[in-house]
């Protein structure tokens, strides 16, 4: 890898805030890549995951509160790729070429923009199988799914 900076997909951020099967691995990866870059929609996607877990009863109100505080603390330490026309265009191109969901295309497009379209040797932290496959195909080194 070029640096200790990694792009973190929401699937790698949420396990840092609420316990999941991947939480231990997510924490280990965070220590290896302390400088996170995320897409502008990561915070919203994380709160969506927290609220889904709360509604399903997989998360208590108290743990929801802790998760909310944790994600807001993480937000202070990461660099956010803002939405702009280049990210949107890149996302559309990815959707035309790969079977991605909208959010995943936006995440990957933001990562592509952050590395100026040169993903080789760049870490992309992800626990979503489909997104990881596409990230690998476009040239990222996927960290998280082993």
Protein architecture, described:
This protein is of the alpha/beta class. It has one domain: 5'-nuclease (Rossmann fold, 3-Layer(aba) Sandwich), CATH 3.40.50. It has seven helices and five strands. The protein has helices at 10-13, 23-32, 42-56, 61-75, 85-97, 102-114, 129-138, and strands spanning 5-8, 35-39, 79-81, 123-125, 141-143. It has a five-stranded parallel beta sheet. α3 packs antiparallel against α4 (61-75) and α5 crosses α6. It is globular and about 40 Å long. The two termini are 17 Å apart. The mean pLDDT is 94.
Q: Main traits of this protein?
A:
5-stranded parallel β-sheet; single chain; 55% helix; 146 residues; globular; 5 strands; alpha/beta; Rossmann fold; 7 helices
How would you sum up this structure in a few lines?
By secondary structure, this protein is an alpha/beta fold. The protein is built from 7 helices and 5 strands; from the N terminus they run E-H-H-E-H-H-E-H-H-E-H-E. The radius of gyration is 15 Å and the shape is globular.
Secondary structure layout:
Elements: E1 5-8, H1 10-13, H2 23-32, E2 35-39, H3 42-56, H4 61-75, E3 79-81, H5 85-97, H6 102-114, E4 123-125, H7 129-138, E5 141-143
Parallel strand pairs: 1-2, 1-4, 2-3, 4-5
Helix pairs in contact: 3-4, 5-6
- Cα(first) to Cα(last) distance is 17 Å
Instruction: Look up the CATH topology.
Output: Rossmann fold
Strand content: 5-15%
Helix/strand class? alpha/beta
The CATH architecture comes to 3-Layer(aba) Sandwich
Largest sheet: 5 strands, parallel
Q: Number of helical segments?
A: 7
**H/E element sequence:** EHHEHHEHHEHE
> What do we call the CATH homologous superfamily?
5'-nuclease
Radius of gyration: 15 Å
């Amino acid at each position: 890898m070029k640096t200790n900076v990694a792009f973190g997909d929401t699937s790698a951020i949420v396990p840092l805030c609420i316990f999941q099967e991947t939480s231990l691995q997510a924490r280990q990866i965070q220590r290896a890549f302390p400088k996170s870059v995320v897409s502008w929609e990561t915070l919203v996607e994380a709160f969506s995951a927290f609220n889904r877990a709360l509604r399903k009863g997989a998360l208590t109100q108290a743990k929801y509160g802790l998760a909310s505080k944790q994600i807001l603390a993480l937000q202070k330490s990461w660099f956010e790729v803002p939405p702009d026309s280049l990210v949107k265009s890149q996302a559309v191109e990815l959707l035309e070429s790969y079977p991605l969901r909208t959010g995943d295309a936006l995440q990957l497009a933001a990562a592509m923009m952050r590395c100026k379209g040169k993903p080789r040797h760049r870490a992309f932290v992800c626990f979503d199988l489909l997104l990881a496959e596409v990230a690998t195909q476009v040239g990222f080194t996927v960290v998280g799914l082993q």
